[in-house]
Each structure stands twice: as structure tokens, then as C-alpha cells.
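With this grant's support, we have settled on a layout for protein records. An illustrative entry appears below exactly as we store it:
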Amino acid sequence: DRDTDKKRIEELLEENMVLEIAQKQSMNESAHLGWELEQLSKSTDLADTRKSFVFELNECASSRILKLEKDNQSLQNTIQELRDASLTSRESSLKFMELEKENQQLSKKIEKLQNQIEKEKQSNQDLETLSEELIKDKEQLQGIMETLKADKDRQVQ
């Protein structure tokens, strides 16, 4: 996503530069047209011809300026949107990194708990084995006690 955003930003910056160059060229053309207009107004004696030509040049220059201003505004909006998207992308990346870190911590905790459970299972098995051995020992001792008691009873009789 970052690479895509960076590429998109670069493309838009290039497009913005191209439009800025076009705007400068248009402004240069407008300046040149203004200069030509001045030259024509100086050289032309006919007031009507000069007025209509000046009017046409002004209209043409005004429309181009308005178009360029509109394009420039559109580019400024696009740049702002990209900046906002970039910030949102950064925020998302930061949140993702935080969640990834939290996920790693939880994975470590889970691993520790699993190890603890395994130890407790082993401990329970050991206790069961010990309990079984103790029960066998108890049964043997009870058997020995009964035998000894029976021997004692016989001896007493």
C-alpha cells in the first residue's frame, strides 16, 4: 500500500509539474499576446479594428487564465487529498504496526501459557504415577499387616 501510495503521489506530482509548466507557458503566451496587442494598438490607426482585436485577445487570455486557474485549483485539491490520504495511510500503517506488536506479545503469552500447561500436565502425570505407586505400596503394607496380625493372633492363641 505504501509503495502504491508513493507511486500515486509521484505520478500526481509529475502531473502537477506538467500542468504548472503548461500554466507558465500559457501565461507567457498571454504576456506575448498582450505585447502583440500593444504593438498592434501602436501601429494600427483604425480604432474600431484595434478595439475588436483587443477585445478578442482579452477574451481569449481571460478564458485561458480561468481555465488554468481551474486546473491549478483542481491540482491543489488533488495534492491535498493525497496528503490527507498519505496521513491516513501513515496512521493506518502505525495502527497496523501497533496491532502487529500487540499480536506478537499475545503470541508470546500464549506460548508461555502452553509451556506452563505442558509442565502442569507432566506434573499431573508424575503425581498420578506416584499416587498409583503409593496405592500399591499401601495395599502391600495392608497385606503385610494382615499377615502379621494373623501371625500374632496365632501366637497369642
Residues 91 and 152 are 89 Å apart (CA to CA). The chain has a mean pLDDT of 81. The longest helix spans residues 47-156.
